[in-house]
Structures are given as C-alpha cells and as structure tokens.
Specification:
single chain, 235 residues, alpha+beta, Nuclear Transport Factor 2, Chain: A, 5-stranded antiparallel β-sheet, two-stranded antiparallel ribbon, 37% helix, 28% strand, transit peptide, Tim44-like, transmembrane helix, membrane
Length: 235
C-alpha cells in the first residue's frame, strides 16, 4: 500500500480550501452585476475618450435612490408631461411600478428600436425581430416576410432618420406597462420583383412615414426589456 507524504496531503488540503473560497466568492450574487441591455429604456450618451473622440455608449436609467422622496421621482415626468393630464398620470403609474423608468430615456431607446425593427423587417431578419416584438406582432411580421419571399420579392430600404417621436399615451394594465408613441420618420424604400423591377415605392425618393407604435413590459418580471405589441400606420 502506498501512502501520501506530508507535503502531498498539505497541498491537497490547501487546494480544497482555495476551491471553496473561490466558489463562495464567484457563486454569490452581490447586487452589483451588470443588468441586461434594454434597448427601450436605454438612453444615448457620447463620452469622450482619451483622444477627445466620442464613442457611442448606451446608459441605463438609474434606479430610485434609497430614501428618495416620491415627488422627487416625478420631476422628470412632470417636466415631460403637464401635471394633471392623463399622460402625466399614466407615466407616474409606470414610474410607481418601475422605478428605473424615465420618459426621455425611453423615447431615445424606442427610436433605436424603431430603426432596428424597420430595417430587420426589410431584410427579413427574423432573429432580430423575435427579440424586439411580442409573439403576436412577431407572427404577423414573419407571415408578411414569408409571403414576400414566396413571391421572390425583395425590399430595398435606407433609413434616413426620425423627425419626431412623441409619447401620446401611457398606462398600466394590471402589472404590464404600455407606452404608445407617434413616430415620424424618413425612409427610402422600394420593393422589387423577381426580375429586379420596382413594383412599389421609389428607390430615389425620401418618403415620410407616420407610425403609432405601442411598447409594453411586464413590470413584475425581472426581464427589463420592452417589446413592440401593436403597430398602426397613420394616414
């Protein structure tokens, strides 16, 4: 029978102790973990690097600090929507359910999501759409894409920009927050058939597009992401 010498036993014990120390540290949630990225509530900022150049960085809205007065939490909302209006009341209700909600940051994030969705639809990018749309809206978009592909048609699109994006209504439906925006954008878009001929739109003309989109989020969920739940094109 072979026996471990004292040195071997010492190193084995030390290895076990170190393993459990690392497990306790690495396996424990401290509350300081980086939250998942939320394109809807994220706000754009451009800090300067060492060379003075701007870098695109998305910062999430802060959560209400401990002991912060409720009225202080509504300052940004009151500046965004006149106190006493239905819009203000709706935004306040969402703030009560989700302390991280900020209307200006939400609008900036929604604008980013709008461009991503419009271009993903044109490109037939189902993966991107699945992450940004509710199940019902996703099914509708995918059906339209499949129908277009069945006819061997392609959409040629260039996103010019968003002229306006305004929150027109906000409300809580049970534990789910709903925010509706009116978005006015500029887009160059043309649909081509199998032969490459333009059958809809104009590849040389910038068109104004007016949409009314509603985003929703379950405030009871740990998932911070908002999803598009309804679309309507304004005449």
């Amino acid at each position: 029978m072979e026996f471990f010498d004292f040195g071997t036993i010492f190193f084995l014990i030390a290895a076990v102790v170190i393993f459990f120390q690392l497990r306790n540290v690495l396996g424990r949630r401290t509350g300081n973990e980086r939250p998942p990225f939320d394109p809807y509530t994220a706000a754009r900022s451009k800090p300067q690097d060492a060379n003075g150049k701007s870098e695109n960085v998305v910062s999430l809205p802060r959560k209400r600090a401990a002991g912060e007065a409720a009225e202080d939490a509504y300052v940004a909302i009151d500046a965004f929507a006149k106190p006493g209006t239905d819009l203000n009341k709706g935004l306040r209700a969402i703030k009560d359910a989700d302390a991280s909600f900020e209307p200006k940051g939400f609008v900036e994030g929604a604008k980013m999501a709008y461009e991503m969705i419009v271009m993903a639809y044109a490109d037939g990018d189902r993966k991107t759409l699945k992450n940004l749309l509710s199940r019902e809206v996703f099914d509708g978009f995918v059906a339209a894409i499949a129908e277009r592909e069945g006819r061997s048609e392609k959409i040629q699109s260039s996103f010019v920009g968003i002229d306006k994006a305004d929150i027109v209504s906000a409300e809580m439906k049970g534990g789910e927050a709903h925010v509706t925006l009116r978005i006015v954008s500029e887009l160059i878009s043309a649909t081509r058939d199998k032969a490459g001929d333009v059958i809809d739109g104009d590849p040389e003309t910038v068109a104004e597009v007016k949409d009314v989109w509603t985003f929703a989020r379950d405030t009871r969920s740990r998932d911070p992401n908002w999803k598009l739940v309804a679309t309507e094109e304004e005449d």
